[in-house]
Give the backbone structure.
Amino acid sequence: MEQILKATQLSKYFYQKKALDKVDINIEKGKIYGILGPNGGGKSTFLKIAAGLLKPSQGEITIDNEKPGVYTKSIVSYLPEINYLYKWMKIKDAVNFFKDLYADFDAEKARESLKFMELEEEEKVTTLSKGMMGRLKLTLALSREAKLYLLDEPLNGIDPISREKIITSILDSYSEKASILICSHLIYYIEKLLDYVFFLSEGRIILSGNAEDLRNKRGMSIDKLFQEVF
Amino acid sequence: MITLLKYEIYRRWIWLVLRYAALIIIGAILLNRISTPALQYKFLGESTGKFIFASLVIFVIIIIEGINMLKEDLFEDCGYLTFTIPKKGRTILASKLVLLFMQLVLWTSITVGFGSIFYSKLPYREMVQIKSQVDFSFLPTVLFILTAFFNLVLMIHFSLTLTKTLLVNKKYSSLLSLGIFFFLAYLIEKVYYGPFLNQIRYISLHYGIEAKINFLSGGYTAVFLNIILAAIFFTATSYLLENKINI
């Protein structure tokens, strides 16, 4: 199977603290992966390195055989946990911004998704609730025809109705050409999406495997397994 | 770069319009005060002074904004958006500098425009007197000021970017940026401009010219040195933005 992301012995230090410690992760095309773990376990750090926002301290990471840079940013769609949109933007400005700056952005798909997510184009991003902001960020990220989607805590702080919409959107966006990497500690909601999981704690992978195999082998759901491991 | 420039303008267009509209309105009001011959000489000095002050305030705002354009992206959450766009570091930096240059051109045009009108209101005798006191070459001086301005902004941009490369948390970033900036300013003064000014002094003494030597005495050579320095800072900052910063 062709790999889209390969991390080898990847480490990231913040002064004395090891955020990632010799992590090996391979992501194949056409699958949905989950990096699961408690807060502060290194999940977001890994995604930020893959998105090109942080530089690794040691080890190597390649996406489509290239180190993170201008090319990888053109094929990776990153959804951060924070509200990263410019404060001056209305929703329609955000859509136009993505259309202008990402060649793979599908504005029509974004507009359809906005309707599904019940978001008005004229609304200012600063007036959106946390749930609405989460839905908007996901709309923008998933409206790109990217090769790799990096979703950092897409369900964090989101109300149950929005959660369902977000999960439906992720499933709708799935294609065999693209891979999705989701970081979350809300396993219960995303478990059904995942083909493969990595359990990350204190910067290290403590367990990994095919989600179905793990469920069969351990005789419990990934959510229960998560609770047992952490 | 044009797309990024478009958004740089778009995100702050209201402030841009307000800023220059305010300067034009202030200039027009002050000119109106001296429009009648009876009041022309009474308020000319005061009106000119007030206009220069207003113009300087706008200039300071332009510099602060020029610095903040990159600082916001480096230290605030919107950096997650700016630095995941598939654009080179030099493109991101250039879009900000082009907007700064456009602002500078606009500010200069308005200031010189109104300045000329105020100047034309002076009595002929004073006009001649002022002209005789201006002893610098116009073009190299303008080019020197322009390049020195960009050097200053680029040096601050470099200091901020280097800070973001070395430090991840924001706590001490302002302090470190200031430290880097003053260290660079000292270093450049000592090893870059210092020997050049000494050379001018030496040549002046050699030809028996006793004049106060400053950067403007360097003419086009000083402009050239500024351009080299700006190119170094631009390249270094672009490299750090693309390859080294931690957002």
Q: What stands out?
A: The longest helix of chain B spans residues 37-75.
